[in-house]
UniProtKB/TrEMBL annotation:
Matches recorded under Pfam families: HGLS (PF07063)
Family classification: Belongs to the 2-oxoadipate dioxygenase/decarboxylase family.
CDD domains the UniProt entry points to: VOC_YdcJ_like
Source organism of the structure: Pseudomonas putida (Arthrobacter siderocapsulatus)
Protein name stated in the entry: 2-oxoadipate dioxygenase/decarboxylase
InterPro entries per the UniProt record, alphabetical: HGLS (IPR009770), YdcJ_bac-like (IPR047869)
GO molecular function: dioxygenase activity
Length: 458
């Protein structure tokens, strides 16, 4: 089949993202309420803070703001992870970053499947944080073997989905009809199932080891456990959730409130208790929740080091993990500590703390002579810069979201068990370095500026 007959992976991803959102709204009506709240807050911010709206127009973020979503799933075996990677590849999504959550008491390690080029992100920024259960961290050998045997019996992909994945790999793409069939079939992997694959006793054994283990092992597939819209003001969302019947978690994860946000801030509503049918009786399970994110500047290695130092210092002073009992003190300490991180884009750029995108200005494009350096172009007003948006995740924040929805008794001690090599072996490919991707994107924007400003008059 000619390549021009194929639907682009970016458009398949956009279709899948829209279909996933519709499915999740039907499964979790509170998610629809959350989307409405986020949309209203975003409109208010754009109206009241014109500098935010202007920055979004420069970067093109304004067009994709209502598309911003990430999902999260948890798979149980290496084979499931490898196939989910192939499924996401059909949609132009590649594994970026390695996250070890075991040190925070969650027995998984993870990556984020997402588009990696700024043009692909502009079309559809959909990403899925994907975690692999670490059976080797289950300390009871009998329970570990029970979990393994249960997972080995399930098939989380439909036969047609597997066929279309293979077809796309062999032919180089999918035509329109096959692309739509792929979206429809792939959705089945992420659906919620009210029927468990285990008895009530087996579920309880898994649950007692760790709630997340029960969530991964006891069901037919890796149901999407949250979808996440992007807000421009997460503090307003946190305050507004209770009035809409949405109980928020106690603490916003990530950096504090800033004029120029950095990295990623996240909050969520608590996991729903849902009725399920075990193989021998009726019961309930809590897993799915609603999450909201506010994305800021992608930080350089220097910026990440400063961020990590300030976050660690805050938690050291707090003397424990942020929770409902110490939420106010934690947020106050966080704001105080992070005064050491410049809240000014020019300073962040000059100090090499963040990555940026560069744009030729109308003045620059009209000028007959150009300064020879990037700094000169910026000072002359020929080039404008905005922070590159952080497209990835923070291990501490991800663990905090997981734990807040598992309950206080969901805590466990696993120590630090990072094993990127084992994860990549299970996945069947190497995960990409997110910092290298940001550096490449920044470099491309500078090169595009230089070309645009030095183009000869015709």
């Amino acid at each position: 089949m000619p390549a021009e007959d194929f639907v682009s992976p970016d458009l398949i991803r956009a279709r899948f993202s829209a279909a996933m959102s519709l499915m999740y709204k039907q499964e979790v009506p509170l998610y629809g309420t959350l989307l409405a709240l986020v949309s209203e807050v975003n409109r208010q911010v754009m109206a009241m803070r014109p500098e935010v709206a202007e920055a979004l127009r420069w970067t093109g973020e304004v067009e994709r703001l209502d598309q911003e979503r990430h999902g999260a799933i948890r798979v149980g075996t290496a084979a499931e992870l490898a196939t989910i990677g192939r499924l996401f590849a059909v949609m132009g999504m590649q594994p970026v970053g390695y996250y070890d959550l075991s040190s925070a008491g969650v027995p998984v390690h993870s990556t984020a499947f997402r588009p990696v080029h700024e043009q692909a992100l502009h079309i559809s920024p959909f990403r899925v944080f994907t975690s692999l259960l670490r059976l080797e961290l289950i300390d009871d050998p009998d329970l570990r073997e029970l979990a393994r045997s249960i997972l080995d019996k399930r098939q989380i992909f439909t036969p047609r989905a597997l066929q279309l994945i293979e077809q796309s790999e062999q032919e180089g793409g999918l035509n329109d009809a096959d692309a739509q069939a792929f979206v429809d079939e792939a959705l089945h992997t992420f659906r919620w199932h009210h029927e468990a694959t285990v008895t009530a006793q087996e579920y309880q054994q898994l649950h007692d080891q760790h709630r997340l283990i029960a969530d991964v092992v006891a069901f037919k597939g890796p149901h999407i456990n949250h979808l996440t819209p992007r807000t421009l003001d997460i503090d307003a969302i946190q305050l507004g959730m209770p009035a809409h019947g949405i109980p928020p978690k106690a603490v916003i994860e990530g950096p504090p409130t800033r004029r120029h946000p950095i990295l990623l801030r996240q909050t969520s509503f608590k996991a729903l208790q849902e009725s399920i049918a075990f193989r021998d009786t009726q019961g309930s399970h809590t897993a799915r929740f609603g999450e909201i994110e506010q994305r800021g500047a992608a930080l350089t290695p220097k910026g990440r080091l400063l961020y990590d130092q300030l976050l660690d210092a805050t938690r050291d002073v707090l003397g424990g993990v942020p929770a409902e009992s110490n939420a106010d003190r934690y947020m106050s300490l966080l704001a105080e500590t992070f005064r050491a991180f410049p809240d000014d884009l020019r300073q962040m750029r000059e100090q090499g703390l963040a990555y940026f995108r560069y744009f030729p200005t109308e003045k620059g494009l009209a000028a007959k002579e150009q300064p020879e350096t990037l700094e000169g172009l910026i000072e002359a007003g020929h080039v404008h810069f905005e922070a590159l948006v952080y497209e990835d995740f923070l291990p501490v924040s991800a663990a905090g979201i997981f734990q807040s929805n598992l309950g206080d008794d969901g805590q466990a001690e696993y120590g630090s068990n990072a094993n990127r090599e084992a994860f990549e072996q299970a996945l069947g490919m190497v995960v990409q370095d997110e910092l290298a991707l940001y550096a490449e994107s920044e470099k491309r924007s500078i090169e595009a500026c230089i070309i645009a400003l030095n183009r000869l008059e015709q």
